[in-house]
Each structure stands twice: as C-alpha cells, then as structure tokens.
C-alpha cells in the first residue's frame, strides 16, 4: 500500500534587512557628537552650549529621515554606511563649531573681511541639503546599472566640471588654486562632483575593454606590458590629470583622478603591470610639474622643510603649525576645545581641520577617525565584492578607492607625509561641495549594496513541481 501526497516548491528564504541594527547604530551616531558638543562648551565657557539640544534634535531628525528613506527604498542595504557617515558628519559639525568660538579666528576674519560669520550654522544647512540629495538619489536611482548607459556622456560631463573653474568670470582663484566657481553668491568646487561622474565613465569603459587590456600584452622583465594602442586610455587620463594640475594648480584632484583610474584598471584586469606603469607615470608627472609650476613648487618646499621658510612663506607656516599641533596633542590630546590649532589661520576649519583632531584628541583620536574612514572604505569594497554585475563591482571599487585616496592625500598633507594638496577631509571640513558630494557617494554605495544583498526572487512554480508523487511504503 502506498500514500500519494502533494508537495509545493519552497520559496526563497527571507534574509534579514538589518534596518533595526542601522537604527540602533544611528542612535549612537547622534549621541556621541552631542557629548562632544557638551564637552567643547564646558571646556571653553564652563557651561553647556545653549544650542546643544537644538543641534541634537536637528542631527537626529536628519538621520531619521535618511534612515526612513533607506528602510523604504533600499531595504537590504549595508547597515553600517549610513551610521558611519552620520557620525563623521556630526563630529565635523562639532569641530567647526569649536573653531567658530576661537577669538583668534574671529579677529582674523574681522581684519581680513570686515566681519566674522560663523561656519557651523552654514555647515548644518549644507548637511540638510546633502541629506535631501541622499534621499533623492535613492528615490530616483532604482538600479545603479542604469548609469552604464551614460558612460561617454559622463566623461564629457566630468570634463565640463573640470573646465568650469578656469573660465574667466566664472572661476575663482582662492589662495593660488583655481578650483572654485561662484554662482549666485555661493562657491562651488566642481572637482568634488567630478570624481563621482568620472567613476561612471571608468566603470563603463573598463567593463567593455577589460579583456583587451588584460589578455593582449607582452611579457618583459616579469611584467605583462600592454600593447601600444591599449595604453591610450591611461595616457589620456594621465594627460588630463596633468592639465588639471597645470591650469588649476590642483594637485589633489589630479592625484585623485589618476589614482582612481589605476585602481579600477588593476581590479578590472588583475595585471600588476598597470600599477607599476601608473606609479612610474605619476612620479614622472609630479616631478615635471613640481619643478615648473610655482604653486606646486611652494608646497613641495613647505613639505621638505616647513621650518626653513616658516617666517617668509604662508604655506610653510601652515604646515609647521599643523605639525606642531599633532606633536602637542600627544597620545590622548589636550581635550575638546583646549588646543591651539586656530593658530593655523584661515584654513583651520577646512584643509587643516584634521590638525584639530590631532591636537585635542591626540593619537588615539586620530586613529579612531581613521578607523571610521577605514570602515566606510571596507564596506565599500565588501559591496564591490558582493555585487552581481561587473559594472557595479567596478563602480563601487572606484568610489571606495577615490574616498580612500582623498583620506590619504588630506591626512598625509597635514601630517607632513606628502605635500599639501588643497583637498578637504570628507564630512569633517567646512564646505558645501565636499559634504554634498560625499553624501551622494554614500547613497550610491547604499544602492549598489542593496542590489547586491537583496535575495533573488523565488522561481515561478511549474505544473510539474506542483504535483509530485511521493510513494511511501505501507
């Protein structure tokens, strides 16, 4: 005797979205800057800052809005990216507000510009706009693979963004660097947005050409050298980075673009020769420009010996003050609000804001901030590894590589490891362009991670699988 039963197909197992984990981490990402804010107020004035509650409510509201958008439109996204960005942005607001309380900087602004305008409220406004752009990217960009259609359009867009600062009447020369444009009374740094746009071009181009770049090569001294015609893309990017450096005096953006392309090229082809070629070309280009461009030459001189020209060069004085800030901070730092990094001057809350971290939080604080940045980079690389499409892999690794390079060149410049580049520390430094561009970068990584982590849909049931005879012996 036997029994015949009906069985059905088993659907896909629902994976945890980790949104509650993200919400819990966001709570800590808001509370930690509030404690830092209170610490600065107690150290400077002996009382709690009057705007501490309003600041906490504002940051919490912005974080809550971002979380709701991610919960609704990117349910399976990485749960760490949003809390990490919120924590860094919140601590950046505290650092900027702390420097706003400096009487030195206030008097310096009054002498130079006839008045002082605090930067923290303006930075809070930029953060609100950035969160709105973050939400807009997640609402509009339903699938990151759509961007692949705009491969060559993005290349043209990136070139336009790079050319804008050198257009007479539109570009502005700020302390020797032509990297800003003035629109409606606001200053915008197009290079911050160009790094995202050009990453789209690199990802789309290398996805199509990677086989030719990887396989068509000749072996020479243990390296696989590409064919001459395959060197075209890297030569074009090298030339473009040099042109940016020559015409805009922008060392940071040149290093960022060229370095990002070499990283993506290596990931796409898995050829070590591209790294060697890229390093040789970057050293050669930097040597030539460093010997001819006066603005770059000044920064190289300040890097080699900042105390030799301390009294005669503003660049040397800034680097010297920055190095002394890190040195006086020691291991644990002087404490929130008790340092003297405001001696750096105008760039204390932008290019050199990491010096305040070094002096007031010490080596421990510097390592903590670098760890937070490293976690964002690690989650970006993990997203690239998990992506199911080659465009998403290259795009995620390109954005993560650009973020890592920017951290390296800014931190290395203010610590004296490499020459100053003029770039700003993501999420920490004062400036609207940087915070807007980096929140867009986080939104794109969240979109790619949502696509990568989202469970595959269950297969449609077939008539054959709906009725399966199972014979059981009696």
TrEMBL record:
A UniProt-annotated Pfam family: FTSW_RODA_SPOVE
Keywords: Cell cycle, Cell division, Cell shape, Membrane, Transmembrane, Transmembrane helix
GO biological process: cell division
Region span, Disordered: 453-474
Major subcellular location class: membrane
Keyword Cell cycle included in the entry's annotation: yes
Name this polypeptide is given: Cell division protein FtsW
Taxonomic placement: Bacteria, Bacillati, Actinomycetota, Actinomycetes, Kitasatosporales
């Amino acid at each position: 005797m036997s029994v015949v039963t009906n069985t059905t197909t088993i659907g896909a197992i629902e994976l945890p979205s980790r949104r509650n984990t993200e919400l819990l981490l966001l709570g800590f990402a808001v509370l930690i800057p509030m404690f830092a804010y209170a610490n600065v107020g107690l150290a400077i004035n002996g009382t709690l800052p009057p705007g501490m509650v309003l600041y906490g409510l504002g940051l919490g509201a912005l974080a809550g809005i971002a979380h709701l958008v991610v919960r609704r439109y990117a349910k399976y996204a990485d749960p760490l990216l949003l809390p990490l960005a919120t924590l860094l942005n919140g601590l950046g607001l505290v650092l900027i507000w702390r420097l706003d309380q400096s009487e030195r900087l206030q008097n310096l602004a009054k002498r130079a510009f006839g008045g002082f305008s605090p930067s923290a409220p303006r930075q809070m406004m930029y953060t609100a706009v950035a969160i709105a752009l973050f939400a807009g990217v997640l609402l509009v960009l339903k699938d990151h693979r759509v961007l692949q259609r705009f491969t060559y359009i993005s290349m043209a867009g990136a070139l336009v963004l790079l050319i804008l600062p050198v257009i007479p009447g539109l570009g502005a020369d700020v302390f020797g660097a032509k990297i800003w444009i003035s629109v409606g009374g606001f200053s915008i740094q197009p290079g911050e947005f160009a790094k995202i746009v050009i990453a789209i071009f690199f990802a789309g181009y290398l996805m199509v050409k990677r086989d030719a770049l990887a396989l068509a090569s000749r072996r020479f001294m243990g390296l696989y050298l590409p064919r001459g015609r395959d060197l075209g893309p890297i030569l074009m990017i090298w030339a473009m980075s040099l042109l940016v450096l020559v015409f805009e005096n922008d060392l940071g953006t040149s290093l960022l673009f060229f370095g990002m392309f070499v990283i993506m090229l290596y990931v796409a082809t898995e050829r070590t020769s591209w790294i060697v070629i890229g390093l040789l070309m970057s050293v050669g280009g930097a040597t030539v420009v460093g010997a001819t461009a006066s603005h770059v030459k000044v920064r190289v001189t300040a890097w080699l010996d900042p105390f030799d020209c301390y009294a005669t060069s503003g660049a040397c004085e800034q680097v010297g003050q920055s190095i002394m800030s890190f040195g006086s901070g020691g291991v644990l730092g002087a404490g929130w609000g008790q340092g003297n990094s405001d001696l750096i001057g105008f760039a204390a809350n932008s290019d050199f804001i990491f010096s305040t971290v070094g002096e007031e939080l010490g080596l421990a604080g510097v390592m903590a901030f670098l760890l937070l940045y490293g976690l964002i980079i690690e989650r970006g690389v993990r997203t690239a590894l998990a992506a199911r499409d080659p465009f998403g892999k290259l795009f995620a690794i390109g954005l993560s590589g650009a973020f890592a390079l920017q951290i390296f060149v800014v931190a290395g410049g203010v610590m004296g490891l490499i020459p100053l580049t003029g770039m700003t520390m993501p999420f920490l430094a004062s400036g609207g362009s940087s915070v807007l561009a980096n929140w867009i970068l986080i939104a794109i990584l969240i979109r790619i991670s949502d696509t990568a982590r989202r469970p595959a849909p269950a297969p449609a049931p077939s008539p054959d699988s709906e009725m399966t005879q199972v014979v059981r012996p009696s």
